[in-house]
Amino acid sequence: MNNQHRDIVIIGAGVTGLTLAHHLHKKNKSFLVLEKADRPGGVINTQKKADFIYESGPNSGVIGQPEVVALFDELGESITLEKGNDLVKIRYILKNGEWHAIPSNPILAVTTPLFTLKDKFKVLGEPFRSPGNNPDESLADMVKRRLGKSFLDYAIDPFILGVYAGDPSMLIPRYALPKLYNLEQNYGSFIKGAMKKHKEPKTDLEKRTDRAVFSFDGGLSSLTDALFQSAGTQNFLFGAQDTVVSPSENGTYTISFSTAEGKQVISANKVVTTTGSIGLQSLLPFIEEHQMADLTNLKYARVVEIALGFDKWQGCPIEGFGGLIPHKEKRDLLGVLFMSSLFKNRAPEGGALFSVFMGGIRNESLCDLDDKELLSVLEREFKDIMKLPDFNPQLIDIKRYSHAIPQYAINTGDRLDAIEKVQNQFPGLIIAGNLRDGIGMADRIKQATLIAKEL
Ligand SMILES: Cc1cc2nc3c(=O)[nH]c(=O)nc-3n(C[C@H](O)[C@H](O)[C@H](O)COP(=O)(O)OP(=O)(O)OC[C@H]3O[C@@H](n4cnc5c(N)ncnc54)[C@H](O)[C@@H]3O)c2cc1C
Question: Where would you tag: which of 221, 327, 389, 446 has the fewest CB atoms within 10 A of its CB?
Answer without folding.
Answer: 389
